[in-house]
Design goal:
With 333 residues, this protein is an alpha/beta fold. Helices cover 45% and strands 15% of the residues. Helix 7 links the parallel strand 6 and strand 7. It holds the Pfam family DctP. This is TRAP-type C4-dicarboxylate transport system periplasmic protein DctP.
């Protein structure tokens, strides 16, 4: 009987070990993470990305991982990196231009072709991740807002070359070189101030993504948006590195796999949203202004080269190495 009992226990042990190995028995514990977001809950970049990421994680964790989200009303977008670095918050959803003074490596993803799978297979995401780990952050995902990212929104028509001659254009640091090359003067300004500045003529336009202008209701105060569209938007979800290192491998895998899926899903999703956004703006009084054929053919190059220039000026060799890697794969200018 003792032999039978020992044999039975051994079989039971091996069965449990096998189930654990193949994931049938989950060792994942319930956990709520805190996340800072650079955007208000009703803004497209937040509402069309953050809930999707949360749903993916929830699905992959059988509902055991949840998030508590705080926005720029709690910590302003330009000040959010440090609280996540030191662990006041677990996660950060942002655009890297907001912390370019600390590192510009992340913002240069905007100069690299949108191909989520290739970006990971060719080591682009790993390279950026390694750079942020030096700052105490783990890159979980880098979702893009569509195949293309940007356009200009203007108070007045384009009348010649350069197309932005003499205009004051709001834009984050990523846009500055391009705005100057098109004859304009870049202006730094929080998103919350753009509507009033456009309305009063403090600025003549704004560089912005292909979604979100309707949320900000710019169609109420200006009449034009430009073509062609250009560039890419590389938003990012980071996690405090110490918190990441404390996680089990199962939990880490859940977060990374959710991040990879988010990157793939977001491209098509935002391409569809951009079509709806443009239709809405046209229906509500805006019209499309085109750059000259010469300038139109140069917009993607001007954008990418401008982003790289800013990145190299701020972060030197680390950005030059990333550009070299992207050039070797024909993914940038």
């Amino acid at each position: 009987m003792n032999i039978l009992k020992k044999t039975s226990n051994k079989i039971l042990f091996l069965s449990v070990a096998s189930l654990i190995q193949f994931g049938t028995i989950s060792t994942l514990h319930a956990k709520e993470f805190s996340m800072l977001s650079s955007y208000a809950p009703n803004f497209a970049w937040h509402s069309e990305i953050v809930p999707d990421f949360i749903d993916l994680v929830k699905e992959k964790s059988d509902g055991k991982i949840t998030f508590n989200i705080k926005g720029p009303d709690v910590v302003p977008a330009f000040e959010q990196l440090q609280p996540v670095q030191i662990g006041v918050f677990d996660f950060l959803f942002t655009h890297p231009a907001y912390h370019s003074g600390t590192t510009a490596v992340g913002l240069t993803l905007d100069a690299i072709d949108v191909d989520p799978i290739k970006r990971r297979e060719k080591g682009i995401i790993d390279y950026i991740d390694n750079q942020y780990q030096k700052l105490g952050l783990k890159l979980i995902a880098a979702p893009s807002t569509g195949t293309k990212g940007f356009r200009f929104y203007l108070r007045d028509k384009i009348t010649g070359e350069p197309g932005l001659e003499g205009r004051r254009i709001r834009g984050t640091v990523s846009y500055h070189s391009m705005i100057k090359n098109l004859g304009g003067s870049p202006v730094n300004m929080p998103v919350s101030e753009i509507y009033t500045a456009l309305q009063r003529g403090v600025i003549d336009g704004a560089a912005w993504g292909l979604t979100g202008a309707s949320d900000l209701q710019w169609h109420e105060v200006i009449d034009y948006m430009t073509a062609p569209v250009f560039g890419q938007v590389g938003l990012m979800i980071f996690m405090n590195l110490d918190r990441w290192n404390e996680l089990s491998k199962d939990t880490q895998n859940i977060l990374i796999e959710a991040g990879k899926q988010l990157e793939i899903d977001s491209v098509q999703h935002f391409d569809e949203l951009q079509v709806k956004e443009e239709a809405f703006l046209l229906k509500n009084g805006m019209s499309i202004e085109s750059f000259s054929d010469k300038e139109a053919s140069e917009l993607d190059r001007l954008w990418a080269q401008g982003v790289w220039e800013v990145g190299e000026e701020l972060s030197g060799d680390s950005v030059r190495e990333l550009r070299k890697k992207a050039l070797s794969e024909s993914m940038t200018y």
